[in-house]
């Protein structure tokens, strides 16, 4: 059965900064979408500037996995759209916030924490280690891979203790970071992935594309069981109390 | 060092319903507060009807553990007060939502899920089993205790997988429920405890008072380490990249 | 790709007790195996009485998911075979201990706890609630299902806090039990499932067969990443220290 | 109430290697014990060479927290003593394996995994980051501390997903490691702490002593609830089945 993936991007840097536009002429969403192309996948994109940020109810209803890139415009996402995304995650939609998508309204609402980090611009080497080689999001990877130049994110990362820690990053400047974390909220699977600053060609890198593709497979909804959330009659007879 | 506990109650049923007022003449908050009295504790109460719901910044700043009872007025809690509570939990304040406090704004925001359940009014027997006898919130309990008559809450309980499952309830009518769950969000410890409908004398029951008292000890803030969340310089020298 | 399932059974009650043999003429392993039949699955059985208990190295090497039923003969399993099973789980083989398989050498070694419970023979009703309706092991189930007559297992269940609590049982006699728990050890997925006493026709019940079939799908190995566990040279240059 | 701490050391390098003896004239156990001295603590030491490795039943029965340093002699610990330690952890004794204590029989039996790592001798800088600044084992620390020269341990670390990840190490040579992990098995709290190779003065370092002292406070047993693990009568009346 086809998996429908929507790649969402705030799409601001690409429109305002020549260097970013040159690097990502089809937008970061375009580069991510290209990397996800595979048989059995229907890949779409949506951006902040579209009506309802490109995420009206019918689009979300059809989306199996939502990949989310955002940075400087996290506050411009409407509360309504953010709530709609959160609701769909509860129903089962996979959600993959990338890079500063950790600061997005949907992710912080799903986590219930500040999602604070330390950071550094300027570019330095990151080596991403697989901490959980048995996890399907690590399928096909070697034990580590490098991103030659990136923004640094450093611990402590103020998120709830994750279900699984898939990746941990080493940074040239001396910090570490839990770069791939798995959660579930309601029926929805969430994978928070660190890499991806807009001024580096990270979304063209093979390993990053492999991880995002694995994450789509992992986060796609499954059937599950029925859930009844309402006032109910007793199944067993009650004594008078 | 003294532990400051604030017992918060929406205090609506007690004012509007004669039976509840007769049962809890000092309010549910009064009954909970009475049960927590112990050397080294400073116990306060606060209610929805007070200015800032009795939770202005200075009160929260002094509170080590906030116990929260709410039911019909969850929506009347202001967003500002709810945010302030959440922020204080992130800073380290313990938070113990009781009964329908699971539907409160602070708890649902800290969880990131719907916190949905099934339920039944009318009164029936609940037997609360200790699933984690090594947990300090179970200190001094036998392996189970009964609440003779209560509202039923039934699974599935739509919360994140907890850090620890301390209690699981058996209900006469045929359901089960995870009645004592531990979480951490930021530096703050959270214990969600199921019992406590307003028309039963549950907050006078010894075992319930024992659990709440244990929860206060468990949830009180600890020192922790420093956390730096800002732009930082490299610790190690960077190559030109 | 075909999934190879080995259903292991101590096969003692069926040979020693007429009632059990009449109920399970092909053994409990036969009944479980029958219930797992599906396209793309290669289902095998193995029993205690065979050489190497039917689990020589080549059989385990080919097995993707091992289902394990045991009860009175847990101590008769050789330490070597138990170690081999544990090693294969570490390598990625799924492991599904059923009923008293919780007391088996492989399961207790994988857990590191006593796996103690309370219990009661004689037959009573069990209602198994789905606590995690978003979990694939609950696929296709209603919100609960009943086993008309069974042995009771009661909390506390002395196992490590699980990755996910999929099922919680209600028992007619007043107890509760976490009846479906997920773990990972190394690359291997483990699902401990409570039902299945030998004197009841539980392994012919549709919902039980559905759960075991779902568990096979969930526990089957995935590719994962490379893991290097040895002495290694530095990747980055070291200063003299 | 006094907390009784037993510091166990295989005590082999100190007796066989002049450099180690010079660095740790009272043994690594002596240096660790010295660092734990505090009012309300009764600190003892025990070594491999003593009868029952210094851990006969009465010593373990009195021990609240067992700190364990081992390396080259892990296989020389008798199975009986290892089982006794595991049993006492189940009963509530805290257990703090340090450095290669991760390969000890008690720790690997409690984890149920291989506890494999990658490693490198020769000495390099390690920077230990606090990933969980709200955890009491990090009390009083800055956001990171350095060990000037140490053996490297690198991910993947083949342990079960921990309850909490308190520390993550950055290594000069390019690796990362989860250096402080919390578990519970039965009633016992376990804290696995990475630092501590025998040829470096690590156990004289203030931050390391602070962590071990915090770990003793955290891992000390608490009261808990009663647990009944036996055949039991029904609490509720059973229908004939």
Automatic annotation (TrEMBL), chains A, B, C, D:
Residues 5-219 form the ThuA-like domain. InterPro entries: Class_I_gatase-like (IPR029062), ThuA-like (IPR029010), Trehalose_catabolism_ThuA_prok (IPR009381). It comes from the Archaea. Keywords: Plasmid. The keyword Lipoprotein does not apply. Pfam families: ThuA. This is Trehalose utilization protein.
